[in-house]
Amino acid sequence: MSKVNANFKIEGIVAAPATPLKDNGDLDLERVKDYVDFLVANSITGVFILGTLGEGMSLTVSERKQVTQAWVKYGIDRLQVIAHIGAGNLRDSIDLSRHAQQVGVTALACMSPSYFRPANEAIMVDYLEQVAAAAPDTPFYYYCINFMTGVNLNTAKILELADGRIPNLRGVKMSSRELPSLLDCTSVCGGKFDVMIGSDEQLLTSVVLGVRTPIVSSYMGNIVQRLREAFDVGDWETARTEQTLARKIMLISHKYGTSPAFGKAVLKCLGLPLGPVRLPVVDLTPELVENLKNDLAECDLSIRWS
After folding, report:
1. Residue 9 domain-assigned?
2. pLDDT tier at 304 (50, 70, 90 boundaries)?
3. Active-site residue, selected from the candidate residues 143, 219, 256, 264
4. Binding site membership for pyruvate: which residues?
5. CATH of residue 206
6. What is the C-alpha to C-alpha distance for residues 35 and 19, in angstroms, rounded to an integer?
7. Is the pLDDT of residue 236 over 50?
8. What residue numbers does the annotated binding site cover?
9. CA 97, CA 81: separation in Å to the nearest integer?
10. Does 141 qualify as catalytic in the annotation?
C-alpha cells in the first residue's frame, strides 16, 4: 500500500531549472548551490528538474541520477524537488523512478515515450502504472507536453483510468496549450487531482480556472507572485499587466530559438551563468546575446539576489 497522502499537493511557484554544464559539456553540479539561492530569493518554492528547460532528454540515465542527487542535496531543505523521470523506454523510466525515491525527492513526474508512442489512453496508463510502482511511496504526476512528444491523448481520461490503479498518482503537469483539456483535468474524478500548469503564457487564465501552481521559467517567479497577489485581491488591472509582461518575454523567446538555449542565455544575462546547452540544441551566438540584453532591458524581471 502506498504511503502517499491522498491530499498531497505541490504548493507555491515551481521553477523548471536549467541543468548546469561545463564548457566541455560535462555536468557542473556545484552550480546548483548558487542556483538554489537565486530561486529562493525570487519567490520560487519548488523545482521541476530534468524537463524541457533542464534538457533531461539530452542527458544519460547516469547524468540524470547525478542531477537529481544534486538538487536533493542542495535544495531539498528549501525547495520542493519534483524529478522528471520520463524517458524513451520503460526500463529507463523505472530505473530513474526507483532512484529518485531512494534519494528523497518530493515528487515524480513522467511524460510519455515519444518514438514508440502509446496508441490510446489505456496503454498510457499501463505504462505509467509500472513506472509509478517503482516508487510507491512518492507522489507521482503524469506530465502532458504533447506538442513535444506528439502524443495527443485525452489527459483527463488518462487520470480517470488511472484512478485506483496507480495509488500514488496525485495529478498532472499540463504543458499542453489546450485550455479545455486543462479545465477537464481540474474536474475529473470529482476534482481530486492536483493540476499544475506549465505555460508562462497562461498564468492568469489558469488561476481563473482554479489551477494555483504554475511551473515556470527560473526568472519568472516575481512576475507570478505579483500576478497571484493581484488576483487574490481582485486587482485585475495589475494581474493583466503581469500576464502581459510574461507574454512579452515569451514573444522575445520566440525570436531566439529553442527554449533551453534561450533560458540559459537569459540567466547568464542576469548574472547566473550555467554553461552551454547540449547538441542538437545550440547556444545563442554572442551577437544574439547582446540583442537579447537589449530586449530584456525593456522587461521588469525584478530579479533579487539573496
Report:
1. no
2. low
3. 143
4. 215
5. 3.20.20.70
6. 10
7. yes
8. 215
9. 13
10. no
